[in-house]
Design a protein that fits this description.
This protein is α/β, with parallel strands linked by helices. It contains seven helices and eight strands. A six-stranded mixed β-sheet has the order 4-1-5-8-6-7. Strands 2-3 form a two-stranded antiparallel sheet. Helix 2 (about 50-65) packs across helix 7 (about 185-200) and helix 4 (about 120-140) packs across helix 7. It is globular, with a radius of gyration of 16 Å. Bound molecules: zinc ion. The site of zinc ion has 5 residues, from loops. Zinc ion (ZN) binds next to loops.
Amino acid sequence: MKTKIKFLAIVCLAVFVFMAFKPLDKKVILIDAGHGGYDSGVNKYGFEEKNITEAIARKIKEQSNSENVEIVLIRDGDISMNLTDRVTIINKLKPDLVLSLHVNSNSNMKANGVGAYISSNKAFHDQSKEIAEIAVNKIVSSGKLTKRYISEAPFHILKYANCNMVHLELGFLSNENDRNYITSEEGQNEIANKILESLN
Ligand SMILES: [Zn+2]
């Protein structure tokens, strides 16, 4: 518990320093790599969701070269963070957008594709939906993943984050085609690149 308080204090300090020196005209995009630490997320065929989301989040940060966009990672490392911790960081930082990264799984191995959930909060619903449409269309434009749905969901972060927010489900670990793509270096680089393109 003490370690957790220490961790949150460090994050809050980092957020304060970041806000103090942030150029006013920059859009701040917070990337939330789903799961982490003791929470692996989907765990199938030797792959863990937490590692895939972390790898893609890092690639988004590394590949970002826009002067107008600042990418900030909520989770940089294999750290356990519950949903309340994540909401605390989001609402302290007050970003222009949060992108939460996840991968899916289904008992039907044919289920595949990219979907998105958006904030049901009226203040952020319409813009989040627009951003989700653009992001999902960009990601599937590679031709490697299909498009599924964009819908509201009563998820904790989507409900309590006071900003535009999109929860992306970047393909299915249970589907062979999706799995090969989302676990490959090439696929992860391409997804990161498409996400960045959608933010411009
Ligand atoms: Zn997940």
